[in-house]
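A reminder from the course coordinator: this example appears on the midterm review sheet, so study it carefully.

Given structure:
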């Protein structure tokens, strides 16, 4: 599998796209005014303790108070009470594990972790671990022994976890990473001692450099950057911390925008739509709500060439691969319910599930998946640390307030009739003026004209209509004259 990383930089925002075998798999957007804060470390102040929720709210200088659960607080005792762990007004060093989402504040932890290219440093832990994605037992043993030996010889405090990128890396590179992390932690500790409360102590790298650190595996052939300044920073960063990828970084000077050249812009637009077309003629409907995301699979125009069961199986198989890609592209997290088309053949069910699991194995985010339930649904979770693509690029529709639907012109007409009856009884006026959208006015003058005449006769007052171009189909006003 070939992989490329594209970095598009403009002053207001940076965008990163991951291309696998020529197909866009992920898009990450970071805006200068709203930079993600996951990984940032703050010196905060406990502003409220909630024993009933076993949680506390911490003022870290962010827009909203951040949430800290008892399970996310470092403690020597198991199941310790939140009131014993923190007190209102006390300073505390915390790290953001989830960006603010919607109306919710950021999620915090005191289990600090500082990543580098090959390792993750755990200041409050003394254990040595290896990423679960490294499956070779000999390699896992080699990495564990190498880390344990260097920690012992260098008398380092804290724990280390070997990341997936550490697979096959020599011991000298691992030791250089460990020393870098130890020096970085000393600097952070010093800043914490000197900082006031509600102050940022350590921030993670900007998106372009994070992409180099976290996303550049052995499969990545090229990293193309369309900004000369960012390219130079990336080359300098890679030369210092990731020398093996330095030669793979390229500056893209072309006149045609890099995202347009690779079709990323089109995929972003498709990633904001509910309906996703399948090549076979079937389609998916993806709905993201506050509680969960639902994915409905439909055969659509695909009629197959053999049996109905075979048609359903092929649609579900294609849907499984497309769903995995859409989850990554849209960065959908939390609870996800997939409604595949009902299959009666158990072997078909197994093959669809294996296809889903195989595709999810390439996902950078942690996922958990269940077998097909008795209702024919597949339940899964995907770790959510930042807002989805739709949440970053879109906002709730002012016409429907995020419902995704609006009242019909007919419904609005009948609401107007009821409001006219109410106001004519309450106020003594000579006539009434209805201000409404063009669609509603057209309906009142056409199909509902008879009802409007009857209403005029009933209340004994004349009713005039006026179309307002800026009114939505649900909006109207009744002016008393």
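Designed residues:
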């Amino acid at each position: 599998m070939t992989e490329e990383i594209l970095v598009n930089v403009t002053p207001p925002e940076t965008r990163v796209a991951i291309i696998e075998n020529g197909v866009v798999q992920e898009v990450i957007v970071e805006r200068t005014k709203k930079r993600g804060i996951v990984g940032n470390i703050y010196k905060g102040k406990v502003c409220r303790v909630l024993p009933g929720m076993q949680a506390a709210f911490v003022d870290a200088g962010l827009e909203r108070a951040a949430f800290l659960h008892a399970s996310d607080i470092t403690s020597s005792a198991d199941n310790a009470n939140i009131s014993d762990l923190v007190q209102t007004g006390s300073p505390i060093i915390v790290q953001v594990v989830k960006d603010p989402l919607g109306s919710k504040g950021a999620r915090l932890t005191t289990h600090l972790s500082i990543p580098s290219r090959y390792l993750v440093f755990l200041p409050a832990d003394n254990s040595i671990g290896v990423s679960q994605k490294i499956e070779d037992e000999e390699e896992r043993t080699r990495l564990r022994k190498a880390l344990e030996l260097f920690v012992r010889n260098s008398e380092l405090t804290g724990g280390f976890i070997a990341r997936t990128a550490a697979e096959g890396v020599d011991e000298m590179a691992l030791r250089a990473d460990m020393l870098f992390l130890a020096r970085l932690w000393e600097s952070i500790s010093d800043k914490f001692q000197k900082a006031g409360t509600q102050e940022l102590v350590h921030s993670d790298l900007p998106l372009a450099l994070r992409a180099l650190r976290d996303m550049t595996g052995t499969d990545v052939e090229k990293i193309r950057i369309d900004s000369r300044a960012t390219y130079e920073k990336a080359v300098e960063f890679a030369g210092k911390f990731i020398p093996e990828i330095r030669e793979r970084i390229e500056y893209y000077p072309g006149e045609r925008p890099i995202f347009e050249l690779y079709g990323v812009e089109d995929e972003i637009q498709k990633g904001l739509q509910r309906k996703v077309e399948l090549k076979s003629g079937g389609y998916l409907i993806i709905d993201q709500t506050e509680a969960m995301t639902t994915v409905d699979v439909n055969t659509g125009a695909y009629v197959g060439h053999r049996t109905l069961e075979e048609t359903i199986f092929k649609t579900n198989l294609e849907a499984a691969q497309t769903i995995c890609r859409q989850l990554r592209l849209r960065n959908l997290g939390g609870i996800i319910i997939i409604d595949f088309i009902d299959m009666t053949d158990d072997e078909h069910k197994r093959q669809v599930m294996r296809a889903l699991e195989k595709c999810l194995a390439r996902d950078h985010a942690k996922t958990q998946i269940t077998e097909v339930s008795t209702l024919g649904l597949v339940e899964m979770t995907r770790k959510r640390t930042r807002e989805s693509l739709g949440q970053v690029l879109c906002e709730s529709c002012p016409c429907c307030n995020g419902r995704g639907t609006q009242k019909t012109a007919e419904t609005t007409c009948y609401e107007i009739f009821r409001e006219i009856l109410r106001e004519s009884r309450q106020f003594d006026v000579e006539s009434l003026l209805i201000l409404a959208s063009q669609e509603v006015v057209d309906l009142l003058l056409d199909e509902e004209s008879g009802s409007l005449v009857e209403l005029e006769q009933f209340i004994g007052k004349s009713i005039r209509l006026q179309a307002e171009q800026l009114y939505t189909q649900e909006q109207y006003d009744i002016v008393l004259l």
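The CA atoms of residues 372 and 378 lie 5 Å apart. The longest strand covers residues 41-50.
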